[in-house]
Amino acid sequence: MARKKFPVITKRVILYIAIANIAICSLIFATSYWAFNRQFREQYDSSIREIAAAARDFLNPDDFKRYRKNPVSDQKHKEVLKQLQVLVDQFDLNVIYVSEVDPPEYRHIFYFYDPVGKATDWSPYPLGYEEDYYEESYNRTTRRVYEEGAELVRHTIKSRSGSHITAQLPVYDSRGKIVALIGAQKNVQEFVDARRSYVRFVVAMILLFGACSVIFFSIYFNYKFIKPILEITSETNRFASENGEPDNGLLKVPNKDEIGTLARSVYKMERVVHNNIMELTRMTTETAEALASAIDAKDAYTHGHSTRVAEYSREIARRFGKSEAACRNIYISALLHDVGKIGVPNSIINKKGPLTKEEYDVVKTHPVIGAQILANITQIPHIADGAYCHHERYDGNGYPSGVAGKQIPEIGRIIAVADAYDAMTSNRSYRKLLPQETARAEIGTGIGSQFDPDFAKIMLEMIDEDKDFNMREKD
Predict the structure, then answer these.
(1) pLDDT digits over 321-358, tens only?
(2) Is pTM, for the whole model, over 0.90?
(3) Distance between CA 413 and CA 40 in Å, rounded?
(4) How far apart are the first and last CA of the chain?
(5) What's the pLDDT score for residue 438?
(6) Are the CB atoms for 281 and 423 separated by under 8 Å?
(7) SS (H, E, C) 413-442
């Protein structure tokens, strides 16, 4: 069983829909991903500012100079550490610290530092502890606070325990000068995991949406546009190849748009073309029949012979599976198969006694003459072959060329059977028509020798169906 293939236009529509879906879904994904991150940043920044505001309430920047000169922890320093511990617990922080930074090296001098062991095993730094930070991203954020006056900077750190965000905010003295930093570090691995789950969910929804929309729009476009267009294309191809009746199915195309108008216009065009073809065919057929009658009139004993041969030939072709147009052309070709007898003297054609060898040789020229007469007719395929080959034999013993088997043009093999049968069932100058049984026996005997087996068997079927012997010359 042949695999059913999608039409090219269907493949292209599906491709275009898929590309459009990818573009739309990518935009949706990027927008939602950006919105998700933005929401987190806003929440994080809000909490960090809240932490800084709370810390500034109990920090006294003027104490930093005193602690730097004399880094001894006093009661006030211990109270600040406790309050920082409260912020750590309240906001679930890893680390919170307050430090002064010495530019341009940006060495940190810690005044308050409270690691709680959530992410590391650090111990609290002693008051006034100095440490150099060489991590570029960390120092870059510090510079932004001191040199650019940034109100909030952040950078991300990844470790074995997960992802962390460290934020830094300035601490101002009474004159508005930046004298220290408040730093807070928070574990955001939960956010990273949530974002990863969110991304998976969004991707899954996008794929589901994309697949459903491709299927839906493919079915819709196929029903609404592609199917009607293919029906129109198929019908025009069929009509162009067969020249048959226009298909009323075009009037059933449900579209109310330009496609429906096109379908109805194509039907009207086919109807006009069909009517013109029928008129031309009728004129051609009538002309051929008139010429055939003129040829038959030349022989007093072959009246109606060409018409009967044409009818038999057309029926053989129809039963063999030929198209309507092909059957019509075979009918016209068979009407004119004896046109070459125009070149044979009447004295020979109407001679009542047996023909001499010389006279028979003259009669045998009529296929060649007929082919020459019909050679310039190009609108009916193989019309000259019908005239030229209808006396060839399947075994190669015919004339004028002596070709055999399938080398004989098909139209010649069809007409040969029909012509032989009508010759036997018609009155001739030298005998009366033969009985139907005799004619049938002769056709059967000639299968494979005189006649093509396929067409001879069809002729036998026709004879067997003719119970009243109507297939003969009428009195």
Answers:
(1) 998 888 989 999 999 999 898 888 888 887 877 889 99
(2) no
(3) 89
(4) 54
(5) 94
(6) no
(7) HHHHHHHHHHHHCCCECCECCCCHHHHHHH
